[in-house]
Amino acid sequence: MLIVFGIYLFIIIGFWAKKIFKEVEGKTLVILSTYFLQPFLTLWVIMLIPLNYDLIISPISYLIAVFFAFIFTFLFSLILKDKKERIIVSLTPLIGNTGNLGIPLSYALFGEIGASIATIINLANIFFIYSFGIFFFAKGEYSFKGAFKKIIKIPVIWFGILALTLNILGVKFSAEVMKILQMGAFASIVVQLLIFGVYLADVKFKEVNFKLNLIVLINKFLIFPVIAYFVLHFFNLKPLYFKAVLLEVLTPLAVTNVNLAALLNLYPHKVAYLVVLTSVLFIGIAFVFLYFIKG
Predict the structure, then answer these.
(1) Residue 211 CB neighbour total at 10 angstroms
(2) pLDDT tens digits, 251-292
(3) CB burial class (10 A; 0-12, 13-18, 19+) of residue 276?
(4) What is the pTM of this model?
(5) Which residues of 36-47 are buried (b: 16+ CB within 10 A; e: fewer)?
(6) Model confidence pLDDT, tens digit, residues 141-183
(7) Residue 242 near residue 229, CB atoms below 8 Å
(8) Would you list the DSSP string of the chain?
C-alpha cells in the first residue's frame, strides 16, 4: 500500500511546486522528459528482458480492448444530446495516463518487467492518441497526414523501434551501459510524475456536469476494464503481464485529453475536471487493485 502513496508523493510535489512557484513551467519539464529522458527509459526497459509472446501480445491486446470498448462507450454516449459531450464520453475514458503515471506505478508494483510492459503499452497508446484518437476528437476534420507528422516527431517512438529491433536481433548492452540507461530511466520516471502534478495544478474548471461525469466514470472504471479483462483472458497472458496491462487500463484520464479538448474547443474545462476526478478516485482503485493482485 505504501508504494501507491510513494507514487502520489512525487505528484503532490509537482502540484505544490507549481502552486508555490508560479515560474515552474510544465512545458519545460515535458520537453526535458519527452526529448531527453524518455529515450533512456524506453531503451532501458525494452532491453531488460528478451521479447516473448506475452510482451509482444500485451500492446496488441490492449489496443484490441480499446477498440472493443469504444463500441460500447460510443453507444453509451448516445444518452447525451450534446455532440461535443458525446465525443468526451466516448473517447476520454480510453486515453489513460499510461506514461506519466502508468510506467512509474507499474515499475513500483511489478519491477523491471512491469516497466517494460507499461512502456510498450504507452507506445501503443501514443499511436492510438495521434491517429484514431485525434481524428475522432476533431470529428473527422483533422487529417491523418497531420496526425502522422505528430507521431514521427516523438523521439520515444523511434527509440522504441530501435530498442525492439536490437532486442529481436539479440543485441545486449554491457552492464555499464545499462546502468547509464537506468539512471536516465529513473530520472524520467520521477520527472513524469512531477509533470503530472504540475499540470494538475494548472487545471481550472468552471462547472460540474453530474451526468457527464457519471457516464465517463462508468466507461473508464467499469466498461473499459471489464472488456479488457475478457480480451486479456482470450490471449491467455501470463498472470504478471495480465495484471500489468489491466493496471494500464485503469489509469486515470491523461492530461493529453485536456490539450486536445482545448485545441478543438470541446469543453476543456469539463475535461480538466474529469482528469482531476479520475486521478483522485484512482487512489482508492489502486488500493483495491493492489489488494487483489496480492490476494
Answers:
(1) 11
(2) 999 888 887 787 677 888 888 889 889 988 998 898 888 877
(3) middle
(4) 0.86
(5) ebbbbbbbbbbb
(6) 555 566 567 667 778 889 989 999 999 999 999 999 999 999 9
(7) no
(8) -HHHHHHHHHHHHHHHHHHH-TT--HHHHHHHIIIIIHHHHHHHHHHHS---HHHHHHHHHHHHHHHHHHHHHHHHHTT-S-HHHHHHHHHGGGSB-IIIIIHHHHHHHHHHHHHHHHHHHHHHHHHHIIIIIHHHHTTT-S-HHHHHHHHHT-HHHHHHHHHHHHHHTT----HHHHHHHHHHHHHHHHHHHHHHHHHHHH-------HHHHHHHHHIIIIIHHHHHHHHHHHTT--HHHHHHHHHHHHSPBPTHHHHHHHHTTS-HHHHHHHHHHHHHHHHHHHHHHHHHHH-
Q: In angstroms, rounded to a whole number, what is the distance separating the alpha carbons of residues 91 and 278?
A: 14
Residue type, 133: G
**Cβ within 8 Å of residue 246, ≥6 positions away:** 225, 228, 229, 232, 289
Beta bridge pairs of residue 253: 96
Closest CA to 229 of 249, 254, 252: 249
Q: Of the candidates 200, 208, 210, 193, which has an alpha carbon nearest to the alpha carbon of residue 257? A: 200
Sign of the CA dihedral running 95, 196, 279, 62: positive
pLDDT for residue 153:
77
Amino acid 95 reads I
